[in-house]
Write a structure and sequence with these properties.
The chain is α/β, with parallel strands linked by helices. It has three domains: 66 residues, no CATH class; 298 residues, Aldolase class I (TIM Barrel, Alpha-Beta Barrel); 51 residues, no CATH class. The protein is built from 17 helices and 16 strands. Helix 8 links the parallel strand 10 and strand 11. The protein is elongated. The chain starts with 9 loop residues before the first strand and ends in a 5-residue tail after the last strand. The C terminus is likely disordered. The structure holds iron/sulfur cluster (SF4).
Length: 456
């Protein structure tokens, strides 16, 4: 268990800290609203000693004692951008943020094209993670420390500075470093802040997704505390034993209990739950496993949809002998699951579930272009590389791009030998009608093979 971090200054974006500091010093809660409004309107991006000077000008009713307290204990922003990994000054890429105690976290911006370009920010909730998922780079770090709610929100502030004006941030996913429900209070604090200041952040809670491998009792609690936020469950296997080999923390969180919680979450919120499933060749990709998965999901009372993610190389996963299945194998797996229909007699099924009875399971494959895509699609696969020289992040939403433009974008970024480069261009050119095109991309320490097959 890491030592709790004592921050000085505290982040102003931390409602809990503001509230407890006010109470501790006898400042009435009613002034919190003014302070919060000031913080939201000011959108600080640096630890600025003068940050609080304007507070009393705007809100003369805030007592001087409160201003002094804030000046002494709180800063507008407590983190700074250590490095920006991208091909452009703004847009898609990865931010390495340095916290005030020198520790670093990562935040990813992923753009989606289409008629209304937009971006998703993938935020971290912890420094490291103790869940130890065998495919995940963050899991190898162990849990180093918890983030404060304000530090989670500061990631959005920094991301806003780096997002392209033509693809504004519209979604937030807690899929960066850490297990969000293992830092429940801070994550809830960030969600509450987003809920009350959705306009300032330009985000609605319905566009926020919390991704978890499951922490007993916390999914139910999230449904009660913050029903508007969405839930994604990193499932990865339909059987308890198999799941425990991929997600070691599952050993103390039985699958049937976890799925009961998901059903309760569905009943309390009416939200659809995204089931994330990393396809690992020879581990969880057999036809038998696909049938077990289809049968399991068809019996869920909560509305669920399945997102299959071919394993994307990480040092930890590779060390465990993990490999991605072929595209064809992914599709076979998907097709088996998709044959299952929601059970008419799902136990306790009512209202929404009844309306959906007999409907096929919604099942998609997220083809990974580069590691960033898998980080985006599954619960955090980020690991700190901040100490290493910056490498360009190559994050592209393959589902939103025509094949040739994907090839062009990736090849331009990758320092490939000229002959390979020419071959790729040739392949890209003949794939313009939708045939499968294979492209090698250098990314991080890995050579990643990815397929730009037609979107599923
Ligand atoms: S996948 Fe998520 S829960 Fe699992 S180790 Fe990585 S960050 Fe932690």
């Amino acid at each position: 268990m890491p030592q709790p971090r004592i921050l000085h200054p505290l982040p102003a974006f931390d409602l809990w800290s503001l509230q407890s500091a006010f109470r501790e010093h006898g400042v009435k809660d009613l002034h919190l609203g003014s302070v919060w409004q000031y913080v939201m309107a000011s959108v600080p991006t640096a630890c600025d000693a003068d940050f609080w000077l304007g507070l009393r000008k705007q809100f003369p009713g805030v007592p001087q004692a409160a201003v002094e307290l804030l000046t002494r204990r709180f800063a507008g922003c407590t983190s700074r951008v250590q490095s920006w990994h991208s091909k452009a000054a703004r847009g898609e890429g990865k931010l390495v943020l340095e916290l005030q105690d020198g520790q670093c976290i990562e935040t990813v911006i992923i753009e989606h094209g289409g008629p209304k370009p937009r971006a998703t920010v993938c935020v971290s909730s912890q420094i490291g993670c103790k869940m130890g998922c065998r495919f995940c780079a963050t899991g190898t770090m162990g849990l180093r420390a918890q983030l404060h709610a304000g530090e989670i929100l500061e990631q959005l502030l920094h991301a806003k500075q780096y997002a392209s004006p033509t693809a504004p941030i519209r979604n937030v996913v807690f899929m960066g470093m850490g297990e969000p429900l293992d830092n429940y209070r801070a994550v809830l604090g960030a969600l509450k802040a987003l809920a009350i200041s959705s306009r300032a952040f330009g985000l609605a809670l319905k566009n926020v997704t919390v991704s978890t491998v499951g922490v007993p009792g916390k999914i139910r609690q999230l449904a009660v505390d913050c029903p508007a936020a969405n839930l994604a469950l990193s499932l990865h296997a339909p059987m308890q034993d198999l799941r425990s080999t991929i997600v070691p923390s599952a050993a103390s969180n039985q699958l049937d209990a976890l799925l009961r919680e998901v059903d309760e979450y569905g009943a309390l919120t009416g939200n659809k739950v995204m089931m994330e499933y990393i396809l690992i060749e020879g581990v969880n990709t057999s036809a038998e496993t696909a049938h077990a998965l289809g049968s399991l999901l068809a019996r869920q009372r909560a509305l669920v949809m399945l997102n299959l993610i071919p394993y994307n190389p990480t040092a930890s996963g590779d060390g465990n002998g993990y490999q991605a299945p072929t595209d064809a194998a992914c599709k076979v797996f998907r097709n088996i699951v998709a044959e299952y229909r929601r059970c008419c007699d799902a136990p306790g099924s009512a209202s929404i579930a009844d309306a959906q009875a007999g409907a096929p399971l919604l099942c998609t494959i997220r083809w990974s272009t580069v590691p960033g895509q898998a980080q985006m699609a599954a619960c955090g696969q980020l690991a700190l590389e901040s100490a290493k020289p910056a490498k360009p992040a190559q994050l592209h939403d393959i589902e939103d791009m025509p094949l040739v433009s994907i090839a062009r974008k990736v090849v331009k970024q990758a320092p490939l030998p000229p002959l390979v480069d020419k071959l790729l261009w040739l392949l890209a050119a003949i794939s313009g009608t939708g045939a499968i095109c294979w492209i090698f991309v250098r990314s991080h320490q890995n050579i990643v093979l990815f397929s730009a097959a037609e979107p599923v």
